[in-house]
Amino acid sequence: MAGAANPASLESAPRIMRLVAECTRSRARAGELRLPHGPVATPVFMPVGTQATMKGITAEQLDALGCRICLGNTYHLGLRPGPELIQKAHGLHGFMNWPHNLLTDSGGFQMVSLVSLSEVTEEGVRFRSPYDGDETLLSPEKSVQIQNALGSDIIMQLDDVVSSTVTGPRVEEAMYRSIRWLDRCIAAHRRPDKQNLFAIIQGGLDADLRATCLEEMTKRDVPGFAIGGLSGGESKAQFWRMVALSTSRLPKDKPRYLMGVGYATDLVVCVALGCDMFDCVFPTRTARFGSALVPTGNLQLKKKLFEKDFGPIDPECTCPTCQTHSRAFLHALLHSDNTAALHHLTVHNIAYQLRLMSAVRTSIVEKRFPDFVQDFMATMYGDPTLCPTWATEALASVGITLG
Amino acid sequence: MKLSLTKVVNGCRLGKIKNLGKTGDCTMDIPGCLLYTKTGSAPHLTHHTLHNIHGVPAMAQLTLSSLAEHHEVLAEYKEGVGKFIGMPDSLLYCSLHDPVSPCPAGYVTNKSVSVWGVGGRVEMTASKFMTIQQALQPDWFQCLSDGEASYEEATSLKRARKSVDRSLLFLDNCLRLQEESEVLQKSKIIGVIEGGDVMEERLRSARETAKRPVGGFLLDGFQGNPVTLETRLHLLSSVTAVLPEDKPRLISGVSRPDEVLEYIERGVDLFESFFPYQVTERGCALTFSFDYQPNPEETLLHQNGTQEEAKCMDQIKTIKTTDCNEEITSFEINLKEKKYQEDFNPLVRGCSCYCCKNHTRAYVHHLLVTNELLAGVLLMMHNFEHYFGFFHSIREALKSDRLAQLKELIHRQAS
């Protein structure tokens, strides 16, 4: 798997990704995306701002943290406030006043997360709205149409998503349908010069299905590829194998976006496996539950043990929260009904994720990524032998041995 | 600490309080307001977003109700609540209660007063109260007092008398304990004027409290429903008339723009700023004008706008918020209303707050409809800035002898 030559992309379409450095041992790459709203250094973690807002933090705060791309969600925004209104507001950028890049998911994931409210046919996904019971059909064409109105810099194809715990013919059906839907999305896309349509590799946890999907989708002229259908309930052992298989068959000169991955360990391992872009609700969601991310894991700040802890969340962190506040104060504030507590943690957790990616990138550029991985695992798990088995195996598969 | 009056116009005091704070080099303008906080933080706001706001007052209000239960932590911290909450450069005033959530009555005794925190009731004798203040080390703090005489609409003379007696006893005890505390030497105790609705008790409270070495006076129990407003205003005039001129007069529970002006005219200097918070919590934005000398075209445009709003508000709407039933006033617009869905104007045209400079009514409407946290953040930034701007305009109006115009403008907009 490691070191196999990747097929060069077939067409002469402009590349949005420029490779800056590659790890000579693993598949890790450092690069730069050239997007309509500015460059983005990779590997990159993209925070999720589902409904045109990064939860309780302002666009200015997000910009100040160094974020240059974040996510919005087509399903949610398509319902409220709707594409027509957003178009009147000069697109999603104008509506939320975000000057940097936006990536919108197609609504496909909601097929899984809202499975009880949805029905999939060849036509598209029929959703019943949880707000007013109305039915909407989200077809590949409709999804692209909405995303065209949103004006995001990267748009995702509508894919037929099945939960990774599903087995049997449904997985195969979904994989082939996703290819057909990719073609429909490409055909429906009105703004290929302004918005980059990414394909999403499906195939569940079946290596053959994934390989077939990879072979077919890489024949299409798209600026980037996402690895989808993972980061659900599957075992990590299966997860990493599918990621590795995917990156081994994806072109080198196009970005690889691993969807739904956000735990620190997963990010580091999947960079080693050759992924460039990541998104996850975890860091922002866990912040709102009072959990702060640190290099050794997380701090549940509501717990009594932090009551008199007068140090910052992380003494090495340069985020505004750590510059101004102590664990003790945040503990007290978290026990009040002042939402400011949640925002302090959201700021910190996003800073943590972005700083992690930045450190990963620097280590790749400085040709010491394997050492970085060792240090990271040692800090997180105390001892390389305590690192989770799947991570050790995944890293070994690309030439990085721990311990 | 030194209060200098620039002028007194129609009962309104315009001036500055100088030499404030630990280093003695801070100044506050009067009439003015204090930054409202919950558990030591402006509601919804981090350091960053608070600093986006123009005109934040030099002094913030902390509430003992939100901090008392943390006093052991603060005692161990040793460096005072200002540093603990991340506001080391702010002047701090600690009140007993949170003006937004009044506490249950019936818990004041001759020996103790109770406050309610998240963890429940905290009962404080004068001794415990002062121990807590030693851990907090605020610049000013409201003395332990009995404010319950004003809970009833018609106070009995007996109850009014008791509130004054108790409060004076608490004051004397606290002053004595302050003398014995090195760490509290730089803090000022604010004496509390009680007495319910009984004139002679109010006057007794004022005169007696003024004899003590307090840093200023808190006029307690003057908040209330409109029915009793006239009575209380009259009472207040008599009280402030017997208070020394050179010490600040704070008032609790009064924050509405129209009421603020009434109370300034009767000699009050400092107010709490919880009104913009209440407006925020009901999804509304302050839009009232305090531009008492606009250009004629602006006036016309704004009047047309105000008339539009007035037409839509035939009756005062009552809505349930998470805290209590609060009425939407005519000083604000309700951004949840469908008509704002496609309104791409800022909350208030010409407002220089972060929200108005960066976002639209349509966006805030969307955030409210989708229950997003950012709604509270943006509205709080706007509402605080608007409110602080109002106080600035009061001072400017007093400076240029235009208070009558401002008052007329505000009353025109009051429902």
From TrEMBL, chain A:
One of its GO terms (cellular component) is cytosol. One of its GO terms (biological process) is tRNA wobble guanine modification. Residues 260-266, 284-288 are annotated as: RNA binding. Its EC number is 2.4.2.64. GO terms for molecular function: metal ion binding; protein heterodimerization activity; protein homodimerization activity; tRNA-guanosine(34) queuine transglycosylase activity. It catalyses: guanosine(34) in tRNA + queuine = queuosine(34) in tRNA + guanine. The keyword Ribosomal protein does not apply. It is found in: Cytoplasm; Mitochondrion outer membrane. The active site is at 105 (proton acceptor), 279 (nucleophile). Gene3D superfamilies: Queuine tRNA-ribosyltransferase-like. Its cofactor is Zn(2+). Substrate binds at residues 105-109, 159, 202, 229. Zn(2+) binds at residues 317, 319, 322, 348. Its main location: cytoplasm. PANTHER family: QUEUINE TRNA-RIBOSYLTRANSFERASE CATALYTIC SUBUNIT 1. Heterodimer of a catalytic subunit QTRT1 and an accessory subunit QTRT2. HAMAP family: Q_tRNA_Tgt. This is Queuine tRNA-ribosyltransferase catalytic subunit 1. It comes from Carlito syrichta (Philippine tarsier). The gene is QTRT1.
TrEMBL record, chain B:
InterPro entries: QTRTD1, Queuine_tRNA-ribosyltrfase, TGT-like_sf, tRNA_ribo_trans-like. Keywords: Cytoplasm, Membrane, Metal-binding, Mitochondrion, Mitochondrion outer membrane, tRNA processing, Zinc. It is a peripheral membrane protein. It is found in: Cytoplasm; Mitochondrion outer membrane. It comes from the Eukaryota. Its cofactor is Zn(2+). NCBIfam families: tgt_general. This is Queuine tRNA-ribosyltransferase accessory subunit 2. It comes from Carlito syrichta. The gene is QTRT2.
